[in-house]
Amino acid sequence: MLSMELEIGVQKAVPEQLKKKPDQTALGFGQYFTDHMFIMRWTREQGWHDAKIQPYQNFSMDPAAMVFHYGQAIFEGLKAYRGKDDDILLFRPESNFKRMNQSATRMCMPRVPVDRMLKALKALVYLDRDWIPTAEGATLYLRPTMIASEPALGLRPSDEYLFFVLASPVGAYYPEGFNPVKIYVEDTYVRAVPGGVGEAKTAGNYAASVKALTESQRKGYSQVLWLDALEHKYIEEVGTSNAFFVINNELVTPPLGGTILPGITRDSVLRLAKDWGMTINERMISIDEVLTGAEDGSLQEVFSTGTAAVISPLGELCYKGKTILVNEGKAGPVAQRLYDELQAIQFGERKDPHNWMVRVA
Ligand SMILES: *Cc1c(COP(=O)(O)O)cnc(C)c1O
């Protein structure tokens, strides 16, 4: 179906359906959901149809729906920000829908019409605008998701899909300041293999990572640093965010080669650093290079990037029982500058040289 033909209906919640807003000082992450959601359906015959904003509600699904058995599920994550003068802003939302379409192609799922999805997203955020927190640093997190809904147990791509968008008010990631975290370098479990689905934002990647995460947390670390699956040697990602290093004043990050999620924050960080005249280098980095660099002082900073935290400085790494401090366990100047700059652009407080922000209202 041509995207032009996709009409978006709106069914507003009646006053009795409106929820009580949560305490803004205790939002956490992904615990509360707004009054409305967007939903649409896909069938092989009709394409995308039944697109509508409706009151937030359960859906009823056949227990044989293919997503429950074979896991065809992809998602995105982005935020709406409340800026100056009550502006409502989205950060690079088209990039999210384009990436969702890349994930869809890898998982044999249908692509979504990017222009229409942007329109639906803006309409949902505008309708639930009272849910965008006003507390400093707090945002409205948006979760576009697609799942296989056809009831059938034979293994093949589903012939029916549901796409929906949830909106969730979330608190500031660093309520007590920009804090470095401790990371466990994972040398047993792996996240993604060449030829696999590592570059798709698909639910199974998250399911497969939970065991390593919980084991690292039991040891006192907040996330794992993933190494490549073949040699357990090269840096891949940090938890569900991209890895960056400052080595001899160069900004270094592993190249996108199929096993790494192409982060939109990663891309934005590379562009800002280039604007500032930093040398940027997308290349393989071995864990040995990181350890040697920490010893001889050439490793200046390590941080990770993603929508939730924007920038997360890594102060300590544990590898095979050995602990190494990075920048004496403190956040470094490059991480700090990137964090300040990106946050200021996202909240509409600073010039947006790449026209990343999309205004909702
Ligand atoms: C979503 C995600 C990222 C970060 O992507 P952003 O677009 O910057 O939020 C990085 N790694 C993984 C595995 C992810 O799922």
Please give the largest β-sheet: 9 strands, mixed
Q: Would you report the number of β strands? A: 18
CATH superfamily of the largest domain: D-amino Acid Aminotransferase, subunit A, domain 2
| H-E order | EEEHEEEHHEEEHEEEEHEHEEEHE
Any idea what the radius of gyration is? 21 Å
Beta-strand fraction estimate: 25-35%
Overall pLDDT, averaged?
A: 96
Q: What do you see in this structure?
A:
The chain has 361 residues and is an alpha+beta fold. It has 2 domains: 8-170, Aminotransferase class 4, branched-chain amino acid transferase, N-terminal domain (D-amino Acid Aminotransferase, Chain A, domain 1, 2-Layer Sandwich); 181-346, D-amino Acid Aminotransferase, Chain A, domain 2. The chain is built from 7 helices and 18 strands. It has helices at residues 66-70, 93-106, 114-127, 203-218, 264-275, 287-296, 333-346; strands spanning 8-10, 36-43, 47-55, 73-75, 78-82, 88-91, 139-148, 160-170, 181-186, 223-227, 235-238, 241-247, 250-253, 279-282, 299-306, 310-319, 322-325, 357-359. Strands 1, 2, 3, 4, 5, 6, 7, 8 and 18 form a 9-stranded mixed sheet that branches. A 6-stranded mixed beta barrel has the order 9-10-11-12-15-16, surrounded by 4 helices. Strand 12 (241-247) and strand 13 form a beta hairpin. Helix 2 (93-106) packs across helix 3 (114-127). The mean pLDDT is 96.
Short description:
This protein has 361 residues and is of the alpha+beta class. It has helices at residues 66-70, 93-106, 114-127, 203-218, 264-275, 287-296, 333-346, and strands at 8-10, 36-43, 47-55, 73-75, 78-82, 88-91, 139-148, 160-170, 181-186, 223-227, 235-238, 241-247, 250-253, 279-282, 299-306, 310-319, 322-325, 357-359. It folds into 2 domains: 8-170, 2-Layer Sandwich (D-amino Acid Aminotransferase, Chain A, domain 1); 181-346, D-amino Acid Aminotransferase, Chain A, domain 2 (Alpha-Beta Barrel).
